[in-house]
Design goal:
Length: 335
Amino acid sequence: MGAVSNPDAKPDEVICEGREASGVELMEPREVPLGGPRAMPVRRTLPQRHRSLIGAWCFLDHYGPDLVSESGGMEVAPHPHTGLQTVSWLFTGEIEHRDSAGNVAMVRPAEVNLMTAGRGISHSEVSTPGTTVLHGAQLWVALPDADRDTDPGFEHYAPEEISGEGWRAHVFLGSLLGDSSPVKTFTPLLGAELVLDPGTSLRVPVDASYEHGVLVDLGSVGVCGVDAKVADLAYVPTGSEEIELVAGDEGARLLVLGGPPFGESIVMWWNFVGRTHEEVVDYRAAWQAQITGPSGEVVPDSRQVAPGRFGVVPDQPLKPIPAPGLPNARLKERR
């Protein structure tokens, strides 16, 4: 299940660069089938052709609720990342995370797992046998140039619930509604789950230097007067000191994301974030060299992966995911 990777057979090359806009912009998702023959569909709202980043947030997949009996659950074998942080947030289900830095952790509802790829890491994520329904979001954060070759790392944090009249929230990155997260990021970021009771109207104070995104997970909500439904992402540009939210008749559950405009261009292809065509080519070659055995075939067991830039995921017998072929054109870098 590619909510933790991007194992598309023909992944798009994406040029990411911040854009200024006036007014709230509604971004509708596109459905992407990820995985094998029983591919689980995900709804992707970032990146899009006309908007690639919200702050440093550069990738957003929203999935479920999916019955594991029908989808097969999540079974993402070891795969590599560079130049980014992955943020895993679940509404329902449980997933085991393993990475080549030696971290083994569970992803559970209302608990954030943040993995820093830095110069290179590989990881796997597999839903637990007791999970019957999977429902969550997977997000990526681009690392700034000064920090993108940092050591790989991992943080787990379970924020306390905060609440007020008609609303409840968990703040997992940054600060919102009087609460703050201790989780380290390399650029200022906001990430929070917000639940609104039916008909609740809430004015949320925000940092005016941030651009924001409001992803609707359940129900419907007005975002500064613009109506958003399930899986829509409402973009709010910089300059706003508050975001007005009005829940529909069924209430709403939202993810509120934000950060100052990133200010750098990046090339994102497959699971890599780099700055140039040559870097991405090198990342791909390094991963393929690690997972290819003497016969020239991909090793059948991730414990047979060779040491290298992306490390070895411990005690994970799944076959590693090979990188797709590069497109027949130079990957573009836009400054």
